[in-house]
């Protein structure tokens, strides 16, 4: 006996989405600038596609392979390859982008209180073990914190990024 819940088919779901392939929207950018694990980049790439965001990645040799392996959509996605992360962040800030770090900080906004992005926003993610480097913290306009009730102090970087991206995109 069913509870009256009907699952939509993949065709129905696709027909309700944007009618053309994603091109760079430039409104929301996920920037895992100091990644440690390639698997996290692949997972984050999928989330970027889901919320209509772009992904900015550093110039590490293993990044392209990690993205190719993680791109389960098997179609082009919006990836910006940047040079020096600190210089890129400074340039983004100079051009008016809002730079938001996902970091445990005294002034951080709780995720539930984070408003959707209304202008070009770069969401910065740090290294999985050490966070956002101190020299990059000065380039942030703000920080967002994901509250936790368990014993851990942080989430996997791709999980944390996905939560914040959905919130910034106005989908949560």
Automatic annotation (TrEMBL):
Record key words, sorted: Methyltransferase, Transferase
Stretches assigned to the tRNA/rRNA methyltransferase SpoU type domain: 37-166
Pfam families: SpoU_methylase
GO biological process: methylation; RNA processing
GO molecular function annotation: RNA binding; RNA methyltransferase activity
InterPro entries in UniProt: Alpha/beta_knot_MTases, rRNA_Methyltransferase, SpoU_MeTrfase, tRNA_m1G_MTases_N
PANTHER family tied to this protein: RRNA METHYLTRANSFERASE 3 (PTHR43191), RRNA METHYLTRANSFERASE 3, MITOCHONDRIAL (PTHR43191:SF2)
Name by which UniProt lists this protein: SpoU rRNA Methylase family protein
Species this chain originates from: Actinoplanes derwentensis
């Amino acid at each position: 006996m069913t509870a009256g819940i009907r699952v939509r088919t993949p065709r129905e779901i696709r027909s309700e989405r944007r009618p053309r392939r994603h091109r760079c929207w430039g409104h929301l950018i996920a920037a895992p600038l100091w990644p440690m694990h390639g698997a996290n980049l692949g997972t984050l790439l999928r989330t970027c596609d889901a919320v209509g965001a772009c992904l900015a990645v550093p110039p590490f040799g293993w990044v392209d392979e990690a993205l190719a392996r993680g791109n389960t959509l098997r179609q082009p996605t919006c990836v910006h390859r940047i040079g020096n992360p600190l210089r890129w962040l400074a340039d983004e800030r100079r051009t008016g982008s809002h730079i938001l770090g996902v970091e445990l900080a005294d002034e951080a906004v709780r995720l539930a209180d984070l408003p959707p992005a209304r202008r070009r926003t770069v969401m910065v993610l740090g290294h999985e073990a050490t966070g956002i480097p101190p020299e990059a913290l000065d380039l942030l306009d703000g920080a967002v914190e994901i509250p936790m009730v368990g014993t851990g102090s942080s989430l996997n970087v791709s999980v944390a990024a996905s939560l914040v991206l959905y919130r910034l995109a106005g989908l949560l």
